[in-house]
Amino acid sequence: MTVEKLVFGGDGLARLDGRVVLSPFVLPGERIRAEAAQEKPGLVRARTLEVLQAAEERVVPQCPYFARCGGCHYQHAPYEYQLRAKQAILAEELRRLGKIEPPAEIAVLAGEPWGYRNRAQWHVAQGRMGYWEARSHKLCAVDRCPVASPKVNEALAALNGMMRDRRWPRFVRSIEVFTDERQVQLNVLETDQPVARRFFDWCAETIPGLGMGPLDYGGRFRVSRNSFFQVNRFLLDGLVEAAIEGAEGESALDVYAGVGLFALPLAGRFREVTAVESGAGAVRDLEFNAERTGLGNVRAEQRTAEEYLQGLEQAPDFVLLDPPRAGLGKIVVRRLVELRPRQVTIVACDPATLARDLAALVAAGYRVEKMTLVDLFPQTYHLETVVRLGRRNA
User: Fold this and answer.
1) Domain for residue 41, yes or no?
2) What does the alpha-carbon distance between residue 309 and residue 273 come to, in Å, rounded to a whole number?
3) How far apart, in whole angstroms, are the C-alpha atoms of residue 355 and residue 387?
4) Which are the contacts of 234, defined by CB distance < 8 A and separation ≥ 6?
5) Nearest to residue 80, comparing CAs of 52, 103, 59?
6) Which of 16, 77, 168, 326 has the fewest CB atoms within 10 Å, measured from its CB?
């Protein structure tokens, strides 16, 4: 088969006997040999067995675990090639799923393609630790990860060493590490056993910078254990700048606000900022972060987006929404259409749900003023999109 193009999800698309074949770790133009892993009417999900004729662009992956570990998808492509592919994939998803013609130019914001992850989650099985293999729950044990930051890799090495000790507890099935390259936060997942505290104390003796409680990220954001924070340590400021670019007026609303990554910078531009977040821990972090920076114009609301917007009577001048992978959903989109704020910016992590939400907003009278692909996840198919919208009749 010959690969036609890359599609969202990391696979290459080929055709055989009238059916679409999706196969991973390939590039357009390559001739490949693959075997079926899963078959549906008109669609085959395959495993790539051999690249018979490689594309000129193909490079040697940096990671020895690539194509076995399920974490990365594009290490066999140069980074500039990855960015162009993601632009094309984003445009295709908008056309195919949202029936939206993307802007003539999709801006790209990119940073260092390696060592960027400030957070990693590893699974533990049979005395080894690592990531799940691609499309399975079989463990791929790893000694280091080239997309993880130096401090994350330092913690990984320490934990791998601890696993050879008889004191390693059997209850540990999954471990998450989060760091700002100074402090380290460790979360033992899938357990509530009291012995976890003894395990943590042991980890603190071994992992430099490990502390209890919230992590004070860069001295700017307190982040508790269950609070969301962006994973790319190089693009935090760039993402914020892209999201609040052009925002102006008296009042701003930050929905799905987390610990205040966007709300705090917005407070420097607006007289009043309302930050809506459903997580209790994240709201406490947000209030702490606003208070210590002396911002008295940020009000936190612990509500779901749907609850808050359904009770809102007057639209603010600017609305920023950073939803989870599921997107905004019908209720949030409906209330945006009814409230008709002058400026709306969406920070989306899934192009499929973004296409759905944009289709509804464009049909209701909004226009896309700028679209930026923010590559928070180099070497993977994941991408972040910042879309600035304005009312057509504003």
Assistant:
1) yes
2) 15
3) 11
4) 111, 112, 116
5) 59
6) 326
Could you give the residue numbers annotated as active site?
Answer: 349
Residue with tokens 């936190």: 300
Whether 51 is covered by a domain: the verdict is yes
**Pairwise CA distance, residues 316 & 329, whole Å:** 20
Handedness of CA 114, 115, 120, 123 (dihedral sign): positive
User: Are 253 and 375 contained in the same domain?
Assistant: yes
List the structure tokens of 254: 């930050």
Q: Which two tokens stand for residue 272?
A: 């009043």
- Distance in angstroms (rounded) separating the CA atoms of residues 236 and 381: 19
Cα of 192 vs its chain's centroid, Å: 27
Asked if residue 50 is part of any domain, the answer here is: yes
Reported pTM: 0.95
- Of 85-89, 162-166, 191-195, which gets the smallest average pLDDT? 191-195
Specify the number of domains making up the chain.
3
Report the pLDDT value the prediction gives residue 385, as an integer from 0 to 100. Answer: 99
Cβ-contact 24, 134 below 8 angstroms: yes
Residue partners of 187: CB distance under 8 A and separation at least 6: 175, 176, 177, 178, 225
Is 373 exposed, middle or buried (CB count within 10 Å of its CB: 0-12, 13-18, 19+)? buried
Tokens, residue 245: 């670019």
Give the SS3 label for residue 110.
coil
Amino acid 190: pLDDT? 60
Residues 97-126 have a mean pLDDT of: 96
